[in-house]
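Priority: medium. Attachment 1 of 2:
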């Protein structure tokens, strides 16, 4: 045990580890390493299965892990929606990992519990909520969306579902056909079934067609459904499209339905004067989800769930755990597990708080603006090339496009684009992904790295051209 907890050994390898990570950051930023060191899953498994560290320093292991991981700090990383972390936030994550405060009750995280309240206030003010707003941090957008919808159910279901179950009620939610799959999953977890997920068609910009809402609600009622919530995407995962939040808020108010905004990716635009108009109406939502590990430079995983009315934040889990809380019926803001799925939770607030302190709202605004601007630049480059086609004009830093040959059929065009994406990622030169929209395969980029330049994007398009020939 003494060897495991030796402070001198920790000090030595810790110093070396920071050097290793700083070297990696510099090499990635300068493009001196592959974005993704491509290896098949089976070969990767074979490597780690026979890995032997007996005679090596622990930093040899960390070096091997770093060299076999995807490098988000590389300016040619443009794949899934996860931030290259602000180095200071990575240091905070180390503090969180080391102190390991459990967060369920106040004593198990006094500093990080109070900091969490400060962080939530920061989000609530940027959304435009009044002082009665409140919320908490939780482990990811998926869990946060489910938590918000559970709160919506406890407010809008006819009976106390937590005690009595659904008792014959047919509950449903309304959501855009382009919403992230976790919303569909949340409704199924809550027992709504496929019929309880009313998917609203999207327009040519992949936004919910709000003019269909009244009709759809009427039909649902005729079929015996009670719609408890409508979920807006701000923005969608596939194309980065923002639903019209004001129009959805009007609908929700008219029909007394809970209005939830899934801003896991694009909610971060609340910090930007330039782009916050994309979120016009967000302050009218009953609940909002924003992922900090997506567009706010925070190490995974950390999500803010903010409620317009703090009372609703306590409604999700109406169950008692007397050994944890003095009076389960009391609203004790400082005993966070009363409101979250997690019992034990990481000290996530400190990862964000250090950036708030050092860089302020402006730091978050600059990150969002740099990347959303880059999305527009990339769209311009794509439109200059006749063999390429945009799925839609980007509203954010998510840009979908494809190589399109009018003389070939859909299957052949799809095959060509899938082949291009696989060849590119195996080369290690760029990392991009693909998505299928209305049966058509598109190359999908999320411009996550603020050091990606126009010439990186030109190089990507040239490579696509080369691969295709
Ligand atoms: C719009 C949206 N909602 C929810 C999620 C899920 O978030 P998480 O990966 O944090 O669970 C994603 C992830 O891509 C997303 O884009």
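Attachment 2 of 2:
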């Amino acid at each position: 045990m003494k060897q495991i907890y030796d402070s001198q050994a920790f000090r030595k390898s810790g110093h070396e580890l920071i050097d290793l990570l700083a070297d990696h950051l510099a090499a990635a930023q300068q493009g001196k390493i592959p974005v993704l060191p491509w290896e098949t899953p089976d070969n990767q498994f074979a490597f780690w299965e026979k890995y032997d560290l007996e005679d090596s320093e622990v930093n040899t292991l960390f070096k091997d892990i770093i060299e076999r991981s995807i490098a988000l700090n590389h300016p040619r990383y443009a794949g899934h929606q996860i931030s290259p972390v602000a180095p200071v936030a990575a240091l905070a994550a180390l503090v969180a990992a080391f102190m390991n405060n459990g967060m369920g009750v106040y004593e198990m995280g006094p500093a990080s519990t109070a900091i969490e309240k400060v962080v939530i206030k920061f989000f609530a003010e940027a959304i435009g909520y009044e002082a009665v707003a409140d919320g908490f941090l939780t482990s990811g957008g998926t869990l946060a969306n489910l938590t918000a919808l559970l709160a919506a159910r406890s407010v809008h279901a006819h009976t106390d579902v937590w005690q009595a179950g659904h008792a014959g009620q047919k509950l449903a939610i309304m959501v855009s056909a382009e919403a992230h799959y976790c919303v569909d999953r949340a409704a199924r977890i809550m027992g709504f079934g496929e019929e309880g997920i009313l998917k609203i068609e999207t327009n040519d910009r992949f936004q919910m067609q709000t003019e269909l809402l009244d009709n759809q609600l009427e039909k649902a009622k005729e079929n015996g459904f009670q719609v408890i919530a409508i979920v807006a995407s701000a923005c969608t995962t596939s194309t980065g499209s923002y639903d019209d939040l004001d129009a959805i808020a009007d609908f929700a108010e008219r029909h007394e339905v809970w209005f939830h905004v899934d801003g896991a990716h694009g909610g971060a635009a609340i910090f930007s004067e330039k782009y916050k108009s994309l979120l016009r109406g967000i302050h009218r939502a009953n609940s909002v989800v924003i992922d900090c590990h997506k567009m706010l430079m925070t190490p995974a995983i950390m999500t803010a769930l903010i409620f317009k009315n703090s009372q609703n934040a306590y409604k999700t889990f109406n169950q008692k755990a007397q050994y944890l809380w003095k009076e389960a019926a009391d609203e004790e803001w400082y005993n966070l597990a009363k409101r979250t799925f997690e019992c034990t939770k990481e000290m996530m607030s400190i990862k964000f708080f250090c950036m708030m302190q050092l860089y302020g709202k402006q730091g978050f605004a600059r990150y969002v603006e740099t990347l959303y601007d880059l999305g527009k630049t990339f769209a311009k480059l794509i439109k200059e090339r006749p063999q390429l086609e945009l799925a839609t004009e980007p509203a954010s830093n998510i840009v979908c496009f494809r190589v399109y040959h009018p003389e070939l059929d859909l299957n052949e065009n799809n095959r060509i684009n899938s082949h291009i994406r696989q060849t590119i990622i195996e080369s290690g030169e760029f990392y991009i992904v693909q998505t299928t929209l209305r049966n058509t395969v598109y190359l999908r980029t999320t411009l996550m790295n603020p050091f990606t330049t126009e010439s990186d994007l030109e190089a990507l398009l040239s490579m696509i051209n080369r691969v295709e020939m």
